[in-house]
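Posting for a labmate who doesn't have an account.
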Amino acid sequence: MGAAIQFFRGVDEPVVPDIRLTRSRDGRTGQALFVFDEPDALAPESMGDITGMFLVDEEGELVTREVKARFVNGKASALECTFTWKSTEDFDRFMRFAQRYADSHDLGFSGNKDDDQPEQDEA
């Protein structure tokens, strides 16, 4: 089983979000901001009210209720979701989901942005 993001249980959101992480200095707490541009969940034929974002993988699901719509000209055009963690264990769990999500969607994923070495292309 791969990993999926859902706004309606059982319905995978096909739009891949832009994800930005911020962490406290000690690394124990932080949050991930997900931005979905033109997600299917906002389509007029979608199933109704969005009550949360569900991050689903083989370990279970992570849930956040912090979901906001971004409007352009009075029309919802994007969803912004914030997932917050309050412990190192929660962060590790989130990162396992993120790796599975990247793998199942053929995304490049780097778990360590603190590396000072620039990536080099082989000639």
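Reply:
Got it, the structure tokens are right above this. The beta strands are 4-8, 11-12, 18-23, 30-37, 53-57, 60-64, 67-72, 75-85.
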